[in-house]
Amino acid sequence: MFLDAATVFRDVPVDEALAVWRVxxxxxxxxxxxxxxxxxxxxxxxxxxxxxxxxxLGKGILRDSSSPYCGSRAWVEDGSVTGIQKGHDVQLAGLxxxxxxxxxxxxxxxxxxxxxxxxxxxxxxxxxLATLQLLDLSNCTWLAxxxxxxxxLAALQLLDLSKCDDLAxxxxxxxxLAxxxxxxxxxxxxLAxxxxxxxxLAALETLNLxxxxxxxxxxxxxxxxxxxxxxxxxxxxxxxxxxxxxxxMAALxxxxxxxxxxxxxxxxxxxxLAALQxxxxxxxxxxKxxxxxxxLAALxxxxxxxxxxxxxxxxxxxQSTKLLLLDFxxxxxLRxxxxxxxxLTALKELILRGCFILRxxxxxxxxLAALxxxxxxxxxxxxxxxxxxxxLTSLKELDLSGCSSLRVxxxxxxxQTxxxxxxxxxxxxxxxxxxxxxxLAALQxxxxxxxxxxxxxxxxxxxMAALxxxxxxxTQA
Length: 477
Description:
The protein is mainly beta. The chain is built from four helices and 21 strands.
């Protein structure tokens, strides 16, 4: 790894180098990198840095004909390829920055594992690299087509085609990349469609299609990606729907559909994604959720931030019993939560900030036994809380600031024995606090500023021995 850092990956983003090393060295790659830093052979923050003296040492080892590493790395220095002593020994080639085709006989590179051709020309004979595991073609803005022979790269595990703006399409042979595990097509703005053979990528685990602004649809074969675990489709601004086969991806654990309004529906098969744990639907403002959504039994994190026209959750939503984090911030059309909501017994954090027309919470809300953080900030139509609210005995932080229509807190409110922080700032129509308020024995922070109609505090108020911060500014209390 030191020889890689001194040549091929010198001054390269550390995340980029680690992605390669994880393929070549397995899960211990980060530990090995940290060990090199502890020994002062390199250092890194965003970029990998190697001192000039140490870099020269590494290059000398690779040029020394008596060294077992001689010729194993090729890199660009002063505009030309260096480090090649015996071409067939090259294992890693970082050739970014060459102005023309690399001066290598690809057929002779029988041990090549990694090839970086960023900003250079793609050789027609690329398919001859039978041992190639990693290929970086990112930012090849001149690249108009991939040769059909690319499907012959039987050992290829990682392919980066990000920012290839002029690449019109992927060849039909693309589906022959049987070992491909990681594919980055992000910011590939001219990509309008994926080949039907795409579903044949039987080993694919991570796929990044973010900011593919011309992508209008996914092929029906997409659901055959049986090993796909991470899928990023954020800001695919022309993508309006997903194929019916989408629910067949049984290994999918993380899905990012941050979309800014173009996505209007999820297929009914969506609920079949039995392994899905993290789902980002941020800014999918026109989206409706299918009834099958409640079948996502493994779902832990759901982000619906700024889905401004989203107005309803399906009634079976409560079946997603493993949910830990749920963010509805900015869902300003959300009118109500289903009665099944109380079944989310693992939920720890719920954010309903800015749900302007939400008037009430279901009576089942008190069943959220694991809830520790709840934000109802700026829910300006909320008039009250259910009597069951006091059953939230794990709740530590509650934000009701800006709930300008809130008129009453339930008598059960004092039962929240774990509550430490309570924000009631600018609750201008709240005239009184419940008599049980003083039972909030763990409360440390209480903000009541701008509660203009609050005229008095309950007799029990002085019992809150843990209270360290109190704001009563601009109240009548």
